[in-house]
Amino acid sequence: MKRLFSEFSIKDVKIKNRICVPPMVIGFGQDGHVSPENVDRYKELAQGGAGLIIQEATCVNSDGLLSVKQLGIWKDDQIEGLKNIVDTVHAENCKIFIQIHHAGVTGISENPICPSPYEYNNFGRSAVGREMTYEDIKSVQNDYIEAARRAYEAGYDGIELHGCHGYLISQFLNKRVNKRTDEYGATPEKFVIEILDGIRKVTPAEFVVGIRLGGFEPTIEDGIHYAKVLDKNGIDFLDVSYGFFSEQEIHVSEGYKYSNAVYAAEKIKKEVSIPVFAVNGINSSEIAEEILNETNVDIVDIGKGILINPDWANYAKEGKDTGKCLNCTKCMWFGQSKVCPGKVIFDKNNK
Ligand SMILES: Cc1cc2nc3c(=O)[nH]c(=O)nc-3n(C[C@H](O)[C@H](O)[C@H](O)COP(=O)(O)O)c2cc1C
Ligand code: SF4
What we know:
Elements: E1 8-10, E2 13-15, E3 19-21, H1 36-47, E4 52-59, E5 71-72, H2 79-91, E6 95-101, E7 113-114, E8 118-122, E9 125-131, H3 134-154, E10 158-163, H4 168-173, H5 183-186, H6 190-202, E11 208-214, H7 220-232, E12 238-241, H8 260-269, E13 276-278, H9 285-295, E14 299-301, H10 304-308, H11 312-317, H12 341-349
Bound molecules: flavin mononucleotide and iron/sulfur cluster (SF4).
InterPro entries: Aldolase_TIM (IPR013785), OxRdtase_FMN_N (IPR001155), YqjM-like (IPR044152)
Keywords: Flavoprotein, FMN, NADP, Oxidoreductase
Pfam family, one: Oxidored_FMN
């Protein structure tokens, strides 16, 4: 586990190993504010030994919410609660970025926005997005910029723009969703690059700003193109996941050993000069080490593995079995069933 437990830096942020807890909304927020349960949860995650946590998708305005229990960063009075999370995580010698998010057409707003009219039907939700006016675009970009300013004030080590999984930035980037005829349609990355430029004006140069980007948006060629453009425009890292779920064209080399998202991360890493994170289905420390060595990515995200065993990184360091996600068709952590069988097995074996 030589590479998995080696140090890594992004700008001045020193991360003690290559294990990242990726953003995972579990839903303890109260009116967008941090609850004591949120703080306890991040304490447990930080004690688990990962070098970096990316805090769950935290909304930049109340119109962009995905659920009523989601955390928010759209008002200054939310900073204090967020700072409690940051201080708790730092006290455990772990670094923390915050993922900032707007759901666009996929959210719970009664009149959701989208780059252009789009009929969304997925995950039990259906809505038709209203085309954003130029004023809407400027206003939402300003919400992201103000959210980043608050994140800096709260003491986060950096931010991650939620730019994938079909949320607002992904809706702009994916040309099957974004049919605008103006400059935000002709150059879909304009929306996020202007956000990045705005954030640079309100935070110091050393503040880390990365993005979770869809590798297939809709194709891998698009994913690589956006990765290169963002690298050129000064983004600090790329956390490569999936794009707009129902609007992707996923083709990977036959017999590829890891997940499609890891494939995209490997391809993108070859084309950029900045750190790349890989995610999805990395379900043992041996595979994590192998991926770091074979694909040259810099950091691995361990999601459901850490939901099953929050001590995943400590177990890996001690050479113990970390437990395994069983990839149930209905995952408890998405509220689709009552139990997590992977956790039941892990807890039974580790009494
Ligand atoms: C309960 C749950 C909540 C999630 N919430 C987010 C989120 O807030 N933001 C995000 O980018 N991805 C989210 N994800 C996706 C994970 O970050 C990760 O990409 C995914 O679980 C695949 O990694 P894994 O195979 O290691 O679990 C979530 C996943 C789960 C299981
Ligand atoms: S419920 Fe199933 S899919 Fe979800 S984390 Fe547990 S074992 Fe994995």
